[in-house]
Every structure is written in structure tokens, then in C-alpha cells.
Amino acid sequence: MRPLIEELKDRILIADGAIGTLLYSYGVDRCFEELNLSHPNEVVKVHRDYIQAGADIIQTNTYGANYEKLSRYGLEDSVKLINTTAVRLAKKAAGKSTYILGTIGGIRSLKQNISLEEIKRSFREQLYCLLLEGVDGILLETFYDFEELSTVLGIAKRETDIPVIAQVSHHEPGVLQNGMNVGEALQQLEMIGADVVGINCRMGPFHMVNSLQEVPLPKSAFLSVYPNASLPNYEEGRFYYSAEPEYFGDMSNELRAQGARIIGGCCGTTPEHIRAVTKRLNNREPVNEKVVKMKQKVSLASTPITGKLLHEEVKDKKTVIVELDPPKHLDTRLFFQGAKALKNVGIDALTLADNPLASPRISNDAIGSIIKSKFNLTPLVHLTCRDRNLIGLQSHLMGLHTLGIHNILAITGDPAKIGDFPGAASVYDLSSIELIELIKQNNEGISFSGKSLRERTQFSVGAAFNPKFRHLDASVKRLERKRDAGADYFISQPIFGRDEMIQIYEATKHINTPIFIGVMPLLSSRNAEFLHYEVPGINVPHSTRLRMKNAGRDPVRARAVGMEIAKELLDTALELFNGIYLITPFVRYDMSIELIQYINEKVHSEREVPYDHHII
Description:
Elements: H1 4-10, E1 13-14, H2 20-25, H3 35-38, H4 40-53, E2 57-59, H5 67-70, H6 79-94, E3 99-105, H7 116-132, E4 137-143, H8 146-159, E5 164-168, H9 182-192, E6 196-200, H10 205-212, E7 222-226, E8 233-235, E9 238-240, H11 245-257, E10 260-263, H12 271-280, H13 310-316, E11 319-323, H14 333-344, E12 349-352, H15 364-375, E13 379-384, H16 390-403, E14 407-411, H17 432-443, E15 460-465, H18 472-485, E16 489-494, H19 498-508, E17 515-519, H20 525-534, H21 542-550, H22 555-576, E18 579-583, H23 589-605
Helix pairs in contact: 4-6, 4-12, 6-7, 7-8, 8-9, 10-11, 11-12, 14-23, 19-22, 20-21, 21-22, 22-23
């Protein structure tokens, strides 16, 4: 058998289709890679079925056989055994007449929050296992993140001389998740050293053909295409693909016309689809010339911002934002009275929580739009990952931009089970860090899928800072990760102790991103105890709780002590930070107004200090 690259110079090779789809059709719905150990005969049968259907190339059952993915099943210590066994099973099925590719799948897909160092360590472990067993090539497939693919491709080319196939996946035809054109991506992979470049997964053959029409033939590499059978259907709890194998086979001729040298199948394809390609591919001779269809570039418009961007505001002056939660009911009179009163005392923005403590309230985007238009007050809208899937988050961001709301706080959100509807599902498609990255990508005019939004959003992105004082260094490291993801400023949980506030300043003074330090007046001893013991992320020092306890049960006296504590905290906050974040308890906006007036008096009586990080 000739070397794989030599064979590709002369003829188109047909690869196998999906392994997982076939095993899923057998009734198996768990870790497919583990079946190499527990059900080896079924895995060998899948390989043989594809070879009998006409596949010249098969891939090992190792797509997710890496440390990261196997750890989800408690199999992280079985990486070597699973990969080694997979190659041996493929060889048992193939004999000497079929090429075997050691398959390694992308780790980043919807979830981007995995470091490159983790990816490189996991990749090397799996790569070495496959190489030691003597595969004919390495197949890197289903990589949505181009940084990940280019990184691991570089490692593979340094570690082996056997052919490496590098395939990107994309949500939209012709464009990657980061907005890069597919043709440009494949050219870059070729420059890194890929022997074969291509696309796989997510789309059926029709959209794959459309994507390739814009892609020139590689200069020194070859082109591979592994389409899905079609878009999936969902019925009675199971996904299935309804596309006819004959259609898939007919489309292989159009893939050949776009320059494909390897034609295989991804999700939903079966031996019948590969058999159809074998029968209906009219010519195995490769195409060496093609006319590239040039796609017209979409220009990005810009809409002038109306209102303030908070991260710019806080760099120049003491800036005060106030949280006033939207109502849990439909009587909005008291809320709007409070919003108007806060506007009149000169706050810089009104922050609107997104169903805090997982309890439903009037949507903050609706409230934000009203206060912006009716009171000319800047809304800061919180956006949680808990209540919306990725589709909903992207749609919501486009809606906020359309409403002219540009200040967003990206947060994870309290889990649904602690709220009014404990049976509701928490979504968490993205983490808060990934949501920050998505918002920043929208600011470049690119949706999550990589598709052009035709206009750049202009969001100022805030991130939450939850200082855990027993492990403050870990809290600060998470802060740094949010900064690196693109956070423009931070908003802290309420701080109830002067010493704790100073600790935060000392721990974060190396970070140049502004921090709005949270201050919330306490109403009673019971309020202080509840916040400390029952609200996630809140720490009320013993000394503060003792002062509230000593205030007694008289609400007037308790309020006075709570305001006294808050003003002492503001004295420290104004010395250390440029941003002040006041949390209004239970729509008691009179307390926030009193604190704002106190801040105004302090600021006007003191000389302004030039901004240098938090302002010292």
C-alpha cells in the first residue's frame, strides 16, 4: 500500500462516516470511546461495515479519548489504554488495504474557558498514544476554535513525520466562529504544515459545497471534506438524521468539483452513506483547477452612542452607580418614583439586576429602556448565564444594542434551585467569562457563530467581583481572568467592613481595570445575620453584626446605625476607589439618596485626585 500522501496525488479517497452515530443507533448512549474496552467487537464491526461500504480510510474510535473529556466519565486514567486499544481494533478490521487515521477531536467547542496549557498537555498525551501504535496519519477534527487547532497542529508537526489532517468546523457557511473566512483559515493551517486541510461536522453537504466555493485549492496540501448527513431531527428524546444516502452520494460529485481529495462523513452518516458515495462518485480523478466564487464583504456600520460608557466615566471622576431591583410584581409606581428621585440627586447609572436570587422580576431590559427614554438615566443591565441558552444570550445582546443600552454586567447568576421556582432549569451554556468574550466579539461586529452582525455593538462590559476573604488570592486570580477576557470594569459584592475594604484594595491595586466597590446600608440585626449566613457570596464581619445587634430592635435606631456604618465605609471607599456602587435595600431609595448626598458633600469638599487605577 502506497503512503497516504502519494495516493492522494493520483486519486480521490473515500473515508468512513460517523462512528458515534452508528453506536448510538445500536442503543448505546454513553462514552463511545470506552466501548473500545467494554464492547470491542461492536467497534470492530463499525470499522468493517465502513470498509465493506467502500471506505479507503477509517479513523480510530478516539475522537473524545482525551483527559478532559474522559474525566467526565471518571476515565481520565484510561487515556493510554483506550487510545492504544482503539488503534489495535482499527488494525484488526482494516488488514493491510485500508489507511488508518488516529483521530483527535477539539476540546473547545461551545465552552471556551479551557486554557491552552491544559489543551496542550491533554493533546500530547493522546497524540503519543496514537503514534506509538503506528497509525498512517493523524486526523484533527471538529475544531471550532482556530487558536486551539493551530496550536495542536504545530505540536503534531513537530512530533511526527506522518501526514496530519487539520479540519475546522463552523456554525455558518464560509466563516469560522471567530469571524475568520474559511479559506483564510485553511491557508493558515497549510502554512503551519498540515498535509491535508478541510472542514467537517455541523453542516450537510449542501452548505459544505457553498463554503468551499469561496476557498481556493491548497498550494501544497490537499483538501478533505466530512459533511454531516443533514441537519438533525429531534423526536421523543432522540436525535436522528433523515437525509437519504443517495442524495449524500450525489453531492460527493459537487464536493469533488470543489477540489476535495478525501470525502468522508460526520454526524448522521452511516455505511449506507459511504456506499452511496462509492457508487455515485463518477470520477476519482482529482480536480487541479477551480474558479473561486468571491464573496462580497459586508461593511460594518456604527451607531452613535447615546449616554455614558461607565468604564470611561469612572476613569475621569468619582462615579456613583445605584442598584434598584425591578419589581417582582407589575405595580411599577414605587420603582419609577425611586428611579426619578435617584436621577435628581445626580447618580451616574442605575443598575438593574437580572432576577437576583433566581426569583422572577420584570425584565430589566424593559425597565432599562423606560428609564433611559423617560428619565434620561443611564441603565446598567445585568445579564445572567442562568436563564438563557446561547441562542437567547445572542438574541438578548442584539436587542439591548437595538434599544441603545450599552452598559452590561455579565454574571453567572444564582442557581435556579434557590429561587421561587426551584424546579426550573439553570442553563449555563456559558460561564460569565465566556459571556464577556461573546460580548467583546459582538463589539467587533461578529456573532457567536462568526456571522457578521453588520454593525458593531458598543457595550461597556462589567464583571462581578466576589471577594472570598479566606481565599482572596483565588478571587483576585479569577478577577484577572475576567480582565483578560475583556472586562472593562468590575462591580464588587457589598463590603461591610473597613478592614475588608482595605484588603481588597491592597490585593487588587496591580489591576488597572476600575472597580466599583459595593456598599449596602443594613436595616437591622436580623438583616445583617440573614445576609451573612444565607445569601451566597456575602460576608458581614462579626464587628459589624455586633453593632447592628447592639442597636436593638427599634427600626429607627437600627436604621441610624446601619447608615452610620455605611457612611464610615464610604469614607474609606472614597479614599481608595473611584467607583462607588450603592445597593438599595428593599426599594428603600431614601437611604441611597441620603448616602449619595453624603458622597457629594465629601467629594465637593475635597480636592479631586488624578485617576491612577482605583484612586488613592
